[in-house]
Design goal:
InterPro entries: ADH_Fe/GldA, ADH_Fe_C, ADH_Fe_CS, BDH-like
Strand order of the largest sheet: 1-8-5-4-2-3
Number of domains: 2
Number of strands: 8
Strand content: 5-15%
Pfam family, one: Fe-ADH
CATH class of the largest domain: Mainly Alpha
Order of helices and strands: EHEHHEHEHHEEEEHHHHHHHHH
Protein name: NADH-dependent butanol dehydrogenase A
Radius of gyration: 20 Å
Domain Alcohol dehydrogenase iron-type/glycerol dehydrogenase GldA: 9-180
CATH architecture of the largest domain: Up-down Bundle
Keywords: Oxidoreductase
């Protein structure tokens, strides 16, 4: 068990119609002029943006809006947001959406608060931010957990690079409003991709090759079982409030640090491998993770098959005998079968990518930062390892 620090300063307001309290929360945290940042036109067509703007008007708050955030949020939109906030003297950002909108908001917040730095330098680790505009969230997609995390991932569409922006406590949202009803209109593919993302945020922290805390393992295993159970319900009952609520809260808990207490931070190789798929081919993040995970797991499990066997037994109720490898492989297959049951891909081909050897080599080259870094801690992976995993996943 490793030493750890657990810090979750975000205020959560959970339940039906809670988004109508956005204005009072913004005033509580000192907002005077707000940027309402959101994604596609669905937020407008559904009437959600009108409800929010009316609520802000009632509280006497000024606001401007900026939509157009897409999955794998773009650096160009971040730059547009920075310029707009500076011009309009915005002092608070309200992210209305899922992880892409929240991540874009965080990057905008960094850019406005650090005017002497280029925001992309924070993603390239060439500079470290010294502040961020305060951010609030109205969550409409349960997936990334960005509403309670210090993480932000941005895609540079010119270089085809998808990189994590600076990970600091400055960008942690002041509050997050979680109304499960706002997720009812999501397409099934987005809903289930979000469920995979939640699972992967837990599994990245769970699969470490060190002694872990029993309580953390138990929380992680229960969270995974809860997501798997309710993801299957949502395949048949997309308007099931209880299932939506369980998934939404699991998404926040999976990425606020709770499931990483005592695990040393996690592995994160699958996320790094998927980031290249997202940056180059603009795939949906959760689906990309599902397509790559089984190949990663089969490539690394022999380093510590007992850990994978524990996963198989405690998450999927697979009996564990003396052959840890056999149980481990059964657990990997069980997770892939779950992905299939919710119509998620388990290969790059099923993801819609039929890649040549050269394209796979190029992905590994980019993921390894031109063969200058390794990824993962369960098993450290160099560029050749990455290439083999991509080939297995093909």
């Amino acid at each position: 068990m490793r030493n750890f620090e657990y810090y979750t300063p975000t205020q959560i307001l959970f339940g039906k119609d809670t988004h109508l309290q956005a204005g009072s929360l913004l005033k509580k945290y000192g907002a005077k002029k707000v940027l309402i940042h959101y994604g596609g036109q669905s937020a407008v067509r559904s009437g959600l943006i009108d409800e929010i703007t009316s609520n802000l008007k009632e509280e006497g708050l000024e606001y401007i809006t900026l939509g157009g955030v897409i999955p794998n949020p773009l650096l160009s939109k971040v730059r547009e947001g920075i310029e707009l906030c500076q011009k309009e003297h915005v002092d608070f950002i309200l992210a209305v959406g899922g992880g892409s909108v929240i991540d874009s908001s965080k990057a905008i917040g960094y850019g406005v608060a650090n005017p002497n730095n280029d925001v992309w330098d924070f993603c390239l680790k060439k500079a470290v931010p010294t502040g961020c505009l305060p951010i609030g969230v109205i969550l409409t997609i349960a997936a990334s957990g960005s509403e309670m995390s210090s993480s932000s991932v941005i895609t540079n569409e010119e270089t085809k690079e998808k990189r994590g922006c600076a990970k600091t406590d400055y960008c942690r949202p002041k509050f997050a409003i979680l109304n499960p009803r706002l997720t009812y209109t999501l397409p099934q593919y987005q809903t289930e991709s979000g469920c995979v993302d939640i699972l992967m945020h837990t599994m990245e922290r769970y699969f470490v090759n060190i002694e872990t805390m029993e309580i953390t393992d138990s929380i992680s295993e229960a969270l995974m079982q809860t997501v798997i159970y309710n993801a299957r319900i949502l395949m048949k009952e997309p308007d099931n409030y209880s299932a939506r609520a369980e998934i939404m809260w699991a998404g926040s808990l999976s990425h606020n640090g709770l499931t990483g207490c005592g695990t040393g931070g996690g592995d994160w190789a699958c996320h790094q491998l998927e980031h290249e798929l997202g940056g180059v081919y603009n795939v949906t993040h959760g689906a990309g993770l599902a397509a790559i995970w089984g190949s990663w797991a089969r490539y690394v499990y022999e380093v510590n098959p007992e850990r994978f066997a524990q996963f198989a037994t405690n998450v999927f109720d697979i009996p564990c005998g003396t052959d840890y490898k056999e149980t481990a492989l059964a657990g990997i297959e069980a997770m892939e079968n779950f992905f299939r049951s919710v119509k998620m891909p388990t290969s790059l081909h099923e993801l819609g990518l039929d890649l040549t050897d050269q394209q796979i080599h190029d992905l590994a080259f980019k993921c390894s930062f031109e063969d200058t870094r390794t990824i993962g801690v369960f098993k450290q992976l160099n560029m050749r390892d990455m290439e083999k995993i991509y080939l297995m996943a093909r």
